[in-house]
Amino acid sequence: MFGTTLASAVLLIPILLVARLLVQYVRNPLRKVPAAHPLAHFTSLWIDSVRWRHIENATLKDAHERLGPIVCLGPKELSVNCVKGGIRDVYGGGFEKINAINGTGNMFSTGSNRPHSQRKRMLSNIYSKSHVLGSDALRISTSTILYNRFLPYLESTFAESEKGVLNIYALLSATTMDIVTSYIFGLRAGSNLIDNREQLAWFLDLYNSRRSFNFWPQEFPRFTSFVEKWLGYRFVPKWVDEANSEIERWTTRMCDEASRVLNAGDAAVEDRPVVYQQLQSSMVKEAKKNGGPVPQAQEMASEVLDHLAAGFDTSGITLDYLVHELSKRPEMQARLQQELLGLSPRITKSSAPHLPDPKAVDSLPLLHSVVWETLRLHSAIPGPQPRFTPPQGCRLGPEEAPYHIPGGVYERATEWRPDRWLDLDKLDEEKRRDMESRWFWAFGSGGQMKYIVATLYSNYTTTIVDDTGIEQIDSYTAPPKSDKLMNTMAFPFNYTLQRAYVPYQQPYSLPTPAPTAVNLTPSSCRLVVRQQPKEALVTVKGKEKFRKPLDPPPMLQLSVSSDTDPNQQFLQNPYLFVSVSLYKHDRDEPIEGPPNDTLAGTLVSSLHRLKDIDNKDGAFFIFGDISIKVQGWYRLRFSLYEIQPNFITLSDLPQYHDIDPESGILGSVHNLGHATSDKFQVVLPKDFKGLEESTYLSRAFSDQGVRLRLRKEARGMMSNKRSLGGDSDQPPIAKKRREDSVESANPLMPNFNYGISPYAQTQYLQTQVLQNSALQTPTRQEPNYGWYDPFLG
């Protein structure tokens, strides 16, 4: 009898459980919401298992793509991925946050709305964009960090055993931490992780190693405490608590130092702890107003620890992916570097300690687009930030990551396309508001990050060495998967940093041995127009002095097959040159008449060995002084030639004294190919729009000594300058110096104006028509172009 009763009870238990689940399901209004999983309407175990396996973001993204903007995750839990009727109501409707955080509270951990709002009002003004951009303390400390720490750190990379390779993620994290703590605690009391690499590795190890142990104390805080207290089992290892304690002590030390600076009362502007001082005074004032106790140091340390963690971590992640995306796109890097050339002053070592105005940096369109596109696609905090509805206790999780990729708002939403932010003016107002505000819920707007990006790309070009594991982890905060940091400086991926163009002014002589001759043929050479002309102002005959050059100046690059010249010796060939002639735009025929009737300026260019925008050596031919004398549509035809001289000895020199230079005995000239430009228009003054802003390629070559006329501003701005009395952005002395021609060092081409380029000049004797009996060895004065680095040698 007893056995039968026990068996019946055992069978009855699952029946009762099923019945309870069915009753709950019928009574639950969420049953009408599409379920992300068949069990979601009945139990939360499914979504708990998803979170425990760290696949929540990907799972919710898939659920919203299948089921729509609102999906059910559990009997009392929804995930929301829409603005109207979703995120706007959740965040703006007074819903309280989940509060499962132990320890000393702060603004972030405050669940109730009123205390949270009170604490937020204490600090909202000093974190406003207007206050940040206008803060003298932040400006000076940022200048010190960028010029005295960040740039020297990059330079020191070249002195390491692996020259030019840098673990960029650590440096970006250190830089953001130093800037954030300098604003919170002041420069003197803040961190200096850039210079202290051991402390940087120590901090990142502590900070990131805790990330995998958030599930149990966050989702099941009471159960976690019960198991630890009564069963002696820890879901979270003890060393995680020790890591938290180490970080807390580190923060407390900065708080103590900031207090000492305040008490001393004679701190410099950059040493003033802006945030800490505001927080301290506001909390004391609030305590006196409410009759409560004076805030303890631990409360303030808890608050500022949240600030520095949120500030450095999210910014470091965003910058990490920004550099990664730019490193995959050299052309985008070049566009950004060209835009940064317009900053005044430029963020280079020679400008220290001055930085460009924060508003000028913030208003750069491409820089802004690059930062915003990274914030959109690679959200640093893609995880849900749940709220509760009173009094039912339904958990609402606005899912941040899917916000940024709805196909109806962002075209090709899964691609990194900064240009989408440059075309907003072409969109209607509703579409623009969708992109800029309604669906853009990134953590931050990138104000201070722009300074770091501008500093990096004003001085360097980045290329990827290893991006294994660059994918973001599936977590509330999402750095790259390979962020393990268990070994010193073992960070997600490395970059090669190459020096940008920084010319020196002092010349030096560069004698070098003659290069080994390489026989070039038309089939082994390829001449490419790297910079196409677009427009020209017609040059009036008799008024050549006031002519304008073709805009932008044509530039060609020569490449030679590696089979023909494996050592790229053609880069040092002094016998290569290109001539130009004017052709009809619709036929392969030259314009009738002598060249002097159609063209003005320097019509021949010798080879320039220059650093390209990717910092690699290249052979270029530059035509920076061509003007057109006839109106209409035309093309330019460029012809590549090589002089093949016959060499003589000093003992044979007398017998060649009276030889005709055109006899061929002294050498010959061979044509190696042609290249033709795109068509362009030559217009009258009334139709001329003005010279465009100089391209990045033009500026890069000008920095290396090539004689070019540069424009720092666009056509509209230059027209305003002309109305004030001048169209040049250079002072009269500099303008005069630019107009002075530099004679070619090639003795066989003595009448060609020559733009100096950094390739070695040969020192052997070449046959020439002697102007006097004194034999002079050709020499070459070369400018130092800045490729020497004290760390590289």
Automatic annotation (TrEMBL):
Alphabetical UniProt keywords: Nucleus, Sporulation, Transcription, Transcription regulation
Disordered, as annotated region: 717-747
Pfam name, any one: p450
InterPro entries to which the protein is assigned, alphabetical: Cyt_P450 (IPR001128), Cyt_P450_sf (IPR036396), Velvet (IPR021740), Velvet_dom (IPR037525), Velvet_dom_sf (IPR038491)
Signal sequence residues: none
One Gene Ontology term, aspect cellular component: nucleus
Entry's Gene Ontology BP terms: sporulation resulting in formation of a cellular spore
Entry's transmembrane regions: none
Location in or out of the cell: Nucleus
Molecular function per GO: heme binding; iron ion binding; monooxygenase activity; oxidoreductase activity, acting on paired donors, with incorporation or reduction of molecular oxygen
Residue ranges occupied by any Velvet domain in the UniProt entry: 519-711
PANTHER family: SPORE DEVELOPMENT REGULATOR VOSA
Protein name: Velvet domain-containing protein
Species assigned in the record: Curvularia clavata
Upper lineage: Eukaryota, Fungi, Dikarya, Ascomycota, Pezizomycotina
